[in-house]
C-alpha cells in the first residue's frame, strides 16, 4: 500500500495534480459493486468524497468510470457510482452536516463528465492532449504516459508517443445553462474579476481595484519574463504580491458582505492559494534558492542532530533582512544561529547552523492512517481534520526564511527539512526526515502453522537491530501464551552504535493438550532504562518513490490445528512470482528443497516424492518450459506434480499432459465466503491423511481462487464446485489425473493467500494433495 501510494504521488509530481484518498483499504479483487460495498460501507465512502469536494471545491468533476459492470473491477464500479452521488450530495447542507461544523462549506460542482475510453463515439466533448507544449517540450499526453510509468510495481510502463491525441468526455450532468459549446469549462467562469463581482456591492470597488492591480502586475511579469533573464519580471511579481496581500487584508477586515459571507470566503480561499505561488514565482525569477538539510534522515528519540538552513542568492538582486527559524513539532528544541539577520549579496551563500534535540518521547513516523487498527476494511481517520484524505503525513520539520528582495516587502519561504547524501555509484540523493525507535525488533516466522499432533518444539528467531549511536543495554525475550515455554527465557543485549544487528534463537515448547486455535508469540526488548521495544523498522525505499517506513509488530501468529503428512515425504518446489508455499510445507513437517535453474535444466528429480510449481511459474521461470517434458516423465515414473495457478501461458504452451483451456477473462471466484461443494466426498483427496469437509473452507481470505480451467480432457477429475453470487458454477479450480505411475494436479485455489494468514483448512487440503499417489486413484 505504501508503494502504490508513493507511485501515485510520483505520478502527480509529473502531471501537477493533487492526490486525495478515502478511508477504503484495498482488500483485493472484487467482481462487482455489490460485493465491494459489503467491505466498503457506501455512506462512509460518500462522506469521505464529500469532504474532499467541499474542501477542494472543484468546478468540474470527471469520472473515469461509469458505475456500471462495464467498468470491470468492483472497485472501479464503486468509484463511478460514488462520483455521480457526490456531485449531488456535496452541495446539500443537510448531508453530513458535521463537516460544516468542522470548517467545510457546501459546494455544488457545475459539471460532471465521464471519460468515454474506449468508446470514443459516446463523447460530447474532448480535450486536446497531443499538442506540443513549448514550455515542456512535449505534449500533455506524453506527460501523462510518463506519470503512468511511475506505477512500476504494477508493470504499467508505457511509451510516450508524439502526435495528435484527444481524450473524449461525455457530459453526464450540468448546472450550467444549456447553449454554446460543450467544452469542459464552457459556462464555468473562474476569473478573479468575476469572483469579485459576486461580492455585495458595498465596498466592492476597493477589492476590484486590488484584483485589477494584481492581474495587471502578473500580465506585466509575463511580458518581462525572459529565458536568459527571468529576473526582469521580479519588480512586477513584487507588485502582484503586494496587491494580493492588500486585497486579502481588506477581505479579512470584514470587507464587502462581511468577513464570513460566502462570496468573501470563496475569494479569500482562492487568493490564499495564490499567495505561495506568487512568492515561489518571485523567488525563482530572482534566482533565490533555500534548502534545509539535516545530517541524518532517521532520527531516534533522545538524540541530537545537526542541521543547516542555506540561502543561495543566484540572481542580480540583493537579499536584505534575511532570517531563518525552524517550525518544529511540540516538545522539540533547536539551538544555534537561527535569529541572526543576514544580507546576502548577489552570487553568495548564507548559512544558519543549528542543533536539533529530538525529545525522548517523540513518536515514530507511522503513516497517520495506520496509527489505529482498521475498522473492517476502512482505515480510521485521526482527530485532526486537516489530514483527512491526505496521501501521507505532512513533513516533520520545516525551515522558514523571511527576506526582502530589492524593493519587495517581506517574502516567506517554507522548506521541508531533508537529508542529502551521496551514493558513489549514482551520486547525490535526498531522503525525507523520519523518526524511528532506537531498536528494531522482528520475529521469524511471522506466521506459523503448528499441527496439534506434532511432537517436539519449534524455533523462533528474533532479530534486533540498533538504529541509534547511543549505547543501549537490555534483555530480549518472548511473551508466550499461558503454559508455553521458551528456552532460554531471554538474552542480554548491548548496542553501542547504529547498524549493529543480532539474531537470537528461542526454542518454544507448547504444553501438551493445548487447544487448537490462533495464538500470538511476541518479541520485545526491555531496556535497562525502562524503555520497551516490540516493533520492527521496515523501510519502503525505491528510487522512484518517496521513502516511507512501516513498523510491523514483532509478533508471530501461530495457528494450531490438526494436520499431518506422510513421514519422510520429500518435496521439490519451483518458486514462481513469490508465495509462502515452501515454508508452509516445512511447518507441516516435510522437507522442502527449492529447485533452481540448474536443477530444472538437469531434469533429475528422482529424489523427490512431490514437485510443486509456485504461482505463475510458467510466466516467471523461462527454464521451466524447457524442463516441462522431464517433469512429466517424473510423474510417469511415479511422482506427483502439483501445479498452482498459472496464467494464459499454461494452456497456450501445452504444458499439461492432457487438453486444458481457460476463459478470457479467466474464471475466478472472488467471494472468499462462496459455498464450496465437494463433488465426491469419498475421493482420496478428501480422505487422507486429513479428513476434509466443508468446514475446511471456512475462514478463507480475499478469494477462493483464480485462473480456473474452463475445459479439460476426460483424463482429469474435477473435485470442487463453487461460484460467485449470481454466476454459474465453476469446477475448474482443482483437478487431478493419473499419468503413468504418478499423479498430475492443477489448482487455481488461492493457497498463496491463505498460507500467510494461517488458514487451517488450506494447509490441510494442501497436505492431502502433496500426499496423493497414483495408487489412491485406481
Task: Walk me through the structure.
The model is unreliable at 255-259 (pLDDT under 50). The chain is 25% helix and 28% strand. The strands form 11 sheets. Strands 7, 9, 10, 11, 12, 13, 14, 15 and 16 form a 9-stranded mixed beta sheet that branches. Strand 30 (570-574), helix 11 (581-587) and strand 31 (591-594) form a beta-alpha-beta unit. The protein has 778 residues and is α+β, with helices and mostly antiparallel strands. It contains 18 helices and 42 strands.
Sheet bearing the most strands, described? 9 strands, mixed
Strand content: 25-35%
Class by SSE composition: alpha+beta
Q: Which overall shape is indicated by the principal axes computed on the Cα atoms?
A: globular
For the record, give the distance between the C-alpha atoms at the N and C termini, rounded to a whole number. Answer: 48 Å
Number of strands: 42
Radius of gyration: 32 Å
- Total DSSP helices: 18
Poorly predicted regions are: 255-259
What portion of residues is helical? 10-25%
Q: Name the average pLDDT.
A: 93
Secondary-structure blueprint of this entry?
Blueprint: H1 2-15, H2 33-39, H3 42-56, E1 60-63, H4 74-89, H5 98-101, E2 111-115, E3 125-128, E4 132-133, E5 138-139, H6 140-148, E6 166-174, H7 192-197, H8 204-224, H9 234-252, H10 262-286, E7 288-294, E8 298-299, E9 304-313, E10 319-327, E11 333-336, E12 342-344, E13 349-357, E14 398-405, E15 411-423, E16 427-432, E17 434-435, E18 439-444, E19 447-451, E20 458-466, E21 472-479, E22 485-487, E23 490-495, E24 501-509, E25 517-527, E26 532-533, E27 538-540, E28 548-550, E29 555-561, E30 570-574, H11 581-587, E31 591-594, H12 597-602, E32 610-613, H13 617-620, H14 622-636, E33 640-643, H15 649-652, E34 660-661, E35 667-669, E36 676-678, E37 705-708, E38 711-712, E39 717-718, E40 720-722, E41 734-739, E42 742-747, H16 751-754, H17 760-771, H18 774-777
Parallel strand pairs: 1-2, 7-15, 8-17, 19-29, 30-31, 30-32, 32-33, 33-42
Antiparallel strand pairs: 2-6, 3-6, 4-5, 7-9, 9-13, 10-12, 10-14, 11-13, 14-15, 15-16, 18-20, 20-24, 21-23, 21-25, 22-24, 25-26, 25-29, 27-28, 34-38, 35-37, 36-40, 39-41, 41-42
Amino acid at each position: 500500500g505504501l508503494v502504490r501510494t508513493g507511485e501515485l504521488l510520483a505520478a502527480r509530481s509529473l502531471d501537477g495534480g493533487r492526490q486525495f484518498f478515502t478511508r477504503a483499504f484495498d482488500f483485493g479483487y472484487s467482481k462487482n459493486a455489490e460485493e465491494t460495498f459489503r467491505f466498503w460501507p457506501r455512506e462512509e465512502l460518500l462522506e469521505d468524497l464529500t469532504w474532499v469536494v467541499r474542501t477542494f471545491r472543484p468546478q468540474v468533476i470527471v469520472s473515469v468510470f461509469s458505475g456500471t459492470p462495464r467498468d470491470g473491477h468492483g472497485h472501479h464500479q464503486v468509484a463511478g457510482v460514488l462520483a455521480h452521488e457526490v456531485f449531488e450530495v456535496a452541495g446539500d447542507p443537510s448531508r453530513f452536516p458535521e463537516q460544516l461544523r468542522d470548517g467545510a462549506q457546501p459546494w455544488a460542482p457545475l459539471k460532471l463528465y465521464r471519460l468515454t475510453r474506449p468508446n470514443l463515439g459516446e463523447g460530447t466533448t474532448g480535450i486536446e492532449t497531443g499538442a506540443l507544449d513549448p514550455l515542456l517540450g512535449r505534449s500533455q499526453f506524453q506527460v501523462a504516459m510518463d506519470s503512468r510509468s511511475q506505477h512500476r510495481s504494477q508493470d504499467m510502463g508505457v511509451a510516450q508517443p508524439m502526435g495528435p491525441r484527444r481524450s473524449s468526455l461525455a457530459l453526464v450532468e450540468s448546472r450550467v445553462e444549456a447553449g454554446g459549446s460543450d467544452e469542459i469549462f464552457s459556462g464555468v467562469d473562474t476569473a478573479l474579476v468575476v469572483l469579485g463581482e459576486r461580492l455585495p456591492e458595498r465596498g466592492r470597488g476597493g477589492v476590484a481595484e486590488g484584483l485589477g492591480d494584481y492581474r495587471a502586475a502578473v500580465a506585466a511579469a509575463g511580458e518581462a519574463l525572459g529565458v536568459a533573464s527571468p529576473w526582469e519580471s521580479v519588480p512586477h511579481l513584487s507588485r502582484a504580491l503586494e496587491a494580493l496581500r492588500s486585497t486579502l487584508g481588506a477581505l479579512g477586515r470584514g470587507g464587502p458582505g462581511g468577513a464570513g459571507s460566502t462570496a468573501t470566503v470563496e475569494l479569500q480561499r482562492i487568493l490564499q492559494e495564490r499567495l505561495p505561488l506568487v512568492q515561489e514565482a518571485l523567488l525563482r525569477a530572482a534566482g533565490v534558492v533555500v534548502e534545509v538539510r539535516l545530517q541524518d534522515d532517521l532520527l531516534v528519540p533522545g538524540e541530537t542532530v545537526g542541521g543547516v538552513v542555506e540561502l543561495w542568492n543566484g540572481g542580480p538582486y540583493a537579499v536584505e533582512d534575511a532570517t531563518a527559524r525552524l517550525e518544529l513539532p511540540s516538545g522539540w528544541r533547536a539551538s544555534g544561529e537561527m535569529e541572526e539577520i543576514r544580507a546576502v549579496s548577489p552570487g553568495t551563500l548564507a548559512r544558519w547552523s543549528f542543533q536539533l534535540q529530538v525529545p525522548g518521547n517523540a513518536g515514530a513516523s507511522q503513516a497517520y492512517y495506520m496509527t489505529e487498527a482498521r475498522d473492517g476494511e476502512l482505515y480510521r481517520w485521526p482527530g485532526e481534520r486537516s489530514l483527512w484524505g491526505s496521501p501521507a503525513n505532512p513533513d516533520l520539520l520545516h525551515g522558514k526564511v523571511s527576506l526582502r528582495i530589492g524593493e519587495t516587502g517581506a517574502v516567506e519561504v517554507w522548506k521541508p527539512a531533508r537529508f542529502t547524501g551521496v551514493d558513489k555509484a549514482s551520486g547525490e540523493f535526498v531522503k525525507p526526515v523520519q523518526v524511528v525507535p532506537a531498536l528494531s525488533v522482528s520475529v521469524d516466522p511471522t506466521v506459523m502453522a503448528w499441527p496439534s499432533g506434532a511432537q517436539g518444539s519449534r524455533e523462533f528467531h528474533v532479530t534486533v537491530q540498533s538504529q541509534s549511536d547511543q549505547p543501549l543495554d537490555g534483555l530480549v525475550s518472548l511473551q508466550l501464551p499461558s503454559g508455553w515455554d521458551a528456552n532460554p527465557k531471554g538474552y542480554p543485549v548491548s548496542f553501542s552504535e547504529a547498524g549493529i544487528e543480532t539474531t537470537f534463537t528461542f526454542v518454544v515448547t507448547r504444553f501438551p493438550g493445548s487447544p487448537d486455535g490462533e495464538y500470538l508469540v511476541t518479541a520485545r526488548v526491555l531496556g535497562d532504562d525502562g524503555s520497551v521495544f516490540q516493533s520492527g523498522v521496515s523501510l519502503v525505499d525505491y528510487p522512484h518513490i518517496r521513502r516511507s517506513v512501516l513498523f510491523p509488530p514483532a509478533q508471530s501468529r501461530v495457528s494450531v490445528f490438526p494436520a499431518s503428512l506422510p513421514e519422510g515425504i520429500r518435496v521439490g518446489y519451483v518458486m514462481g512470482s513469490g508465495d509462502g508455499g515452501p515454508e508452509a510445507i516445512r511447518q507441516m513437517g516435510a522437507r522442502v528443497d527449492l529447485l533452481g535453474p540448474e536443477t530444472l535444466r538437469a531434469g533429475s528429480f528422482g529424489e523427490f516424492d512431490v514437485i510443486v510449481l509456485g504461482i505463475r511459474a510458467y510466466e516467471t521461470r523461462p527454464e521451466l518450459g524447457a524442463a516441462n517434458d522431464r517433469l512429466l516423465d517424473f510423474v510417469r515414473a511415479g511422482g506427483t506434480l502439483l501445479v498452482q495457478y498459472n496464467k494464459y501461458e499454461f494452456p497456450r504452451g501445452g504444458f499439461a499432459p492432457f487438453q486444458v483451456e481457460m476463459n478470457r477473462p479467466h474464471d475466478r471466484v472472488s467471494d472468499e465466503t462462496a459455498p464450496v461443494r465437494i463433488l465426491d466426498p469419498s475421493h482420496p483427496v478428501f480422505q487422507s491423511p486429513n479428513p476434509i469437509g466443508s468446514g475446511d473452507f471456512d475462514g478463507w481470505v480475499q478469494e477462493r481462487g483464480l485462473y480456473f480451467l474452463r475445459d479439460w480432457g476426460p483424463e482429469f477429475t474435477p473435485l470442487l464446485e463453487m461460484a460467485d453470487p449470481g454466476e454459474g458454477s465453476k469446477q475448474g479450480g482443482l483437478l487431478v489425473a493419473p499419468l503413468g505411475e504418478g499423479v498430475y494436479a492443477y489448482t487455481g485455489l488461492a493457497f498463496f493467500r491463505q498460507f500467510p494468514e494461517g488458514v487451517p483448512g488450506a494447509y490441510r487440503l494442501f497436505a492431502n494433495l502433496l500426499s496423493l499417489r497414483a495408487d489412491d486413484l485406481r
